[in-house]
Amino acid sequence: MVARPSVFYHLNPIVELRGGLGFFYTIVENSRNQLEQRPWQGVRIHWPTFRPIGIKHYLKLEERLLWETEVWDFDLALRFRYKLGGRIPFNESRKFYLSQFGEAFVNFGGEDVELLRDRMRGYFGLGHKLNDTWTVELEFMLQRSRSNEIEDFDVNGHIFKLKLVKDGWVW
Fold first, then answer.
1. Cβ neighbours, 10 Å, residue 137
2. Is 132 buried (19+), middle (13-18) or exposed (0-12) by CB count in 10 A?
3. What is the pLDDT along the chain (171 residues), one digit of tens a residue?
4. Arch. (CATH architecture) of 2-170
5. CA torsion angle for 128, 89, 82, 157 (degrees, to 10)?
6. Three-state SS string across the chain, please?
7. Which of the four, 5, 26, 85, 142, has the lowest number of CB atoms within 10 Å?
8. What are phi and psi of 8, to 5 degrees?
């Protein structure tokens, strides 16, 4: 179960400030379930832009308050996320585009109570700009993770997403 209310502010055409609070409840088979509250702050930078290709950088710091629900053990950890990607239109009208992103997660502090704590993700997608307000995207995500710092990264997630976006808001 997930809830992630957030706000963002366009400082200028290049920089966007973001913040929010995430609530997560994870049911783990053959292990302890986990409750998490995650306040976070971030900045998205739209730079450089090589028309018609736009590149985005997204830096995010998360404060992770984690509880194992069986014994209510508490852990506090910080996680830094960096996402780099962009869109490449593949027709003259720029209504259809290819999107790609790479994202790395780095944890600081806290005990190793989280399963799959370090992650790397790759996103690939196709999008269609329906009009000036609405966009639809089909996205594929490949996720690699590890349970601790000494293990190798292993592929453990293949996720498809269909997104309907209105003025930057995902529905």
1. 19
2. exposed
3. 778 889 999 999 999 999 999 999 988 777 778 899 999 999 999 988 787 788 999 999 999 998 988 888 888 889 999 999 998 998 878 899 999 999 998 888 766 545 555 678 999 999 999 998 999 999 999 988 765 556 666 667 888 999 998 876 665
4. Beta Barrel (2.40)
5. 50
6. CEECCEEEEECCCCEEEEEEEEEEEECCCCCCCEEEEEEEEEEEEEEEEECCEEEEEEEEEEEEEEEECCCCEEEEEEEEEEEEEEEEECCCCCCEEEEEEEEEEEEECCCCCCCCCEEEEEEEEEEEECCCCEEEEEEEEEEEEECCCCCCCEEEEEEEEEEEEECCEEC
7. 5
8. -145, 155
How many residues make up the chain in this entry?
171
Q: Record the tokens describing residue 157, joined without a space.
A: 């997630």
Kindly give, in sequence order, each residue whose CB lies less than 8 Å from that of residue 38, ignoring residues fewer than 6 positions away: 21, 22, 23, 24, 62, 63, 64, 65
Q: Among all chains, which residue has been given the structure tokens 């629900």?
A: 69
pTM to 2 decimal places: 0.82
Q: Which two tokens stand for residue 141?
A: 């995500």
Q: Which two three-digit tokens encode residue 33? A: 């379930």
Q: Specify the residue for token string 């109570």.
A: 113
